[in-house]
Amino acid sequence: MDEILRVRDLKTRFFTEEGQVNAVESVSFDVRDGEIFGIVGESGSGKSVTALSVIDLIESPGRVTGGEVWYRNADLADEFREKRSEAVDGDFVDLRRLPKGVRRSLRGPSFSMVFQDPMSSLNPSITVGEQIAEAVEVQRRARANPRSTRSRTQGYGLGKYLVDSIVPGREYTSTESKERAIELLEQVGIPDPEARAEEYPHQFSGGMLQRAMIAQALAGEPDILVADEPTTALDVTIQAQILNLLRDLQREQDMSIIMITHDLGVIARMCDRVGVMYAGQIVERGTLGDIFENPVHPYTEGLLGSIPDLEDPSPRLSPIEGNVPSLLDSEMGGRCYFADRCPNAMEACLNSIPEYDTDSGEVVGDGANAEAVHTARCVLATREFDAAEALGDDYFGDRAEASDPETPDDAAEQEVVSDA
Ligand SMILES: Nc1ncnc2c1ncn2[C@@H]1O[C@H](COP(=O)(O)OP(=O)(O)OP(=O)(O)O)[C@@H](O)[C@H]1O
Ligand code: NI
């Protein structure tokens, strides 16, 4: 299977008053044709920012500061082969090196996104059918005039971006678009789509709204659909229905999906391959089998500690002791970011850890071993755990407590850490 997307060494920072937040730190992964690639991790691990970085939707004070996003598109590659040879590799273009207008023009026909909350994507004062018809119309205009960035920058089912471009109360721009909108509503399993198209978002149930948002996202027939926690807000039965819908659509349309979730049950059910995120990094990635049956990173093992049951939505990820670290640059040590929560932390984990091919133990990066299927940012990819080198349970314990204002001996304990 060929890749449609190759993300390499992506870095995204937020420049905030508190300091620089390293939300995405050297993230690399591939998405193949017709697959569902899952990104899983605790809240704040950088899943959403990773996806937004790939499709160029990071807003100030954030910025993608490094890395490459190679997207397979023969037409674009031909167009830029001469003009910007450094942005072209075979049939791939590096989106980060293309003009912004061109990148924007890919929203809809190349990339589209569905979010957790449909109301963030749909305008309450416009009928559902009209909104989808508008997405279709924008797409249609764009296709008639491929490099007109003006018409192509407007939305493409990208939620609020689309809403911004819609004039409330406007009629369907053409009967063709209206028909296509109804077709899309039918395709996402909305019964009686002709009548439902005339209704406003508040007349839809949560599940139906989510379907409508998916219909809107499909208007441009994207190559890659990014689904960010698309079912988190829904009750379990509806959740299962929406997941099935996404999987069916992915097969029918032969698109690829990047599925973002903190729910390993969703991953197990949907995904072909998975990236496990922690503190802005992909700490392990591989096939579903690699991750579920042969995990290398203790963080992955920790997450697997309690796989939530789709029938029982309450437990999400297994609660691993400790907290997600601050992603502030100043507080990121040059060590494995998970070491302070890791049951198997060794002295070697106090160095910064590259991504390893778990089969060969070789470092993946800078183009080397990029094709590795199962990787882990963990020394355990290269060697066995050795109790003689273990850091001991309280190695980071003092530091963790030091940040807790209720701990009485803060100062004293901090001393201990800095001596260590
Ligand atoms: N606009 C912003 N300004 C500053 N920091 C931000 C901004 N957006 C995200 N971040 C930070 O980036 C990090 C990653 O956030 P992100 O939303 O990607 O996490 P996530 O894995 O998607 O979590 P969740 O499951 O809660 O959605 C967090 O530390 C977050 O605080
Ligand atoms: Ni998120």
TrEMBL record:
GO biological process, one term: peptide transport
Keywords: ATP-binding, Cell membrane, Ion transport, Membrane, Nucleotide-binding, Translocase, Transport
Region annotated Disordered, chain positions: 396-420
An MF annotation (GO) of this entry: ABC-type nickel transporter activity
Record flagged with keyword Translocase: yes
Membrane topology term: Peripheral membrane protein
Chief place of localization: membrane
One GO location term (cellular component): plasma membrane
ABC transporter domain location: 5-304
Reactions the enzyme catalyzes: Ni(2+)(out) + ATP + H2O = Ni(2+)(in) + ADP + phosphate + H(+)
Record field: compositional bias (Acidic residues): 403-420
Keyword flag Transmembrane: no
Subunit structure: The complex is composed of two ATP-binding proteins (NikD and NikE), two transmembrane proteins (NikB and NikC) and a solute-binding protein (NikA).
Protein name: Nickel import system ATP-binding protein NikD
Protein's organism: Haloprofundus marisrubri
Taxonomic lineage of the native organism: Archaea, Methanobacteriati, Methanobacteriota, Stenosarchaea group, Halobacteria
